[in-house]
Amino acid sequence: MTAVSLLGICGSTRKASLNRALLVAIGEVLPEGTVLSLYDGLEGLPIFNSDLQDPPTVLALKAAISKVDGVIVSVPEYNYSIPGGLKNALDWISRPPASSPMRGKPVGICGAATGMSGTIRAQNHLRQMFVYSDSPVLAQPEVLIPRAQERFVDGKLVDESTRQLLARFAMAFVTHVRRYKLV
Prior knowledge:
Blueprint: E1 4-10, H1 18-28, E2 34-39, H2 56-66, E3 70-74, H3 84-93, E4 107-112, H4 120-132, E5 143-145, E6 152-153, E7 156-157, H5 160-181
Parallel strand pairs: 1-2, 1-3, 3-4, 4-5
Antiparallel strand pairs: 6-7
């Protein structure tokens, strides 16, 4: 099997983000031959303005996406949707549509929250947004982690049932990526 390279993008810019911890935990259970790099830097992106040329921070994000086989987005839920910084990043990387690095790029979505909904609304909104870039989004298994503060301690996953779910997600996502890599 060929190696698979993935980029993890955390929708939260918080230093102790549960969603960043979720990406790290997914990285720990990926199948052999799969590499996950984390992208930190959404807070450095200017507010999207289509009158502007891509600034260096946007070019860096686009280059990081271009180099990988698939993208995993870990999204918190703010006001029943995705954080503004993540929406801003998607606006930048989706332009121009024909040459967007997200065009046809396989995507996996996951999320962790302290509440009971586990980011379900944010994930639904994010799925809609990836229609624009024709990015095939993994449908199952869904990773909607409720009460995440009980499953992560000091940024480390401590819940075995969550680890098993993440292992199923990781295997399914790598299979999803390979399916589109062959096309």
